[in-house]
Amino acid sequence: MGAGAGTGRGTAGSAPRRDRDRFRTFRGRFGTPTAYALAILAGGGCTFVALASSTADTANRVAMIVFGLVGAVIAWRFGAVRAVPDPGGLTVVNYATSRRLVWAEIVTVRFGPNDPWVHLDLADGDVLAVMGIQRADGEHGMAEARRLVALIAELGEAEEPGRGTPDRK
């Protein structure tokens, strides 16, 4: 074996980890676990109270369980907000909608001091909220916004025609 054979772990082995860190899902740090805990508490708590109540009739028990489950579904959707980056683009999952964007569609990232979450200005004129990057997360939210800006700067520029080919005269 020649020098360095079998030692390709240094740079080649770190590339998948770097990509994994770079394309890590954007998700709220505090809002997500809080919403999931609230969903479990609402669904489980209402079900427990309905079944443990000795004075409630069947209709009231069913209504309480349905109320708890509806509250749990709503809270679960609040916890599901995220933005999933990959080399091809960004999938933004908000409370009620999901949208897939290619990097070149994203023109600007805005995260003003009074904004609760990041907003993306898109090439078609739309503005899309990215609720997975939240102001409530403080410096973590700011760092995640910077990471999104870096991904857009790296992957978002559309290929120029003839780029990479020598000019012919």
The proportion of strand residues reads 15-25%
- Helix share of residues? 40-55%
Q: Mean pLDDT score, rounded?
A: 84
Strands ordered across the widest β-sheet: 1-2-3
Major sheet description:
3 strands, antiparallel
Structural features, described:
This protein is elongated. The strands form 2 sheets. Strands 1-2-3 form a 3-stranded antiparallel β-sheet, with no helix packed on it. The chain has helices at 14-22, 31-52, 58-79, 139-155; strands at 82-86, 89-93, 98-102, 106-110, 117-122, 127-134. By secondary structure, the protein is of the alpha+beta class. β5 (117-122) and β6 (127-134) form a beta hairpin. The longest helix is centred in the first third of the chain and has 22 residues, at 31-52. It is 41% helix and 20% strand. It has 4 helices and 6 strands. The model is unreliable at 1-11 and 160-169 (pLDDT under 50).
How would the blueprint of this fold be written?
Layout: H1 14-22, H2 31-52, H3 58-79, E1 82-86, E2 89-93, E3 98-102, E4 106-110, E5 117-122, E6 127-134, H4 139-155
Helix pairs in contact: 2-3
Key features?
169 residues, alpha+beta, 3-stranded antiparallel beta sheet, 4 helices, 6 strands, 41% helix, disordered N terminus, disordered C terminus
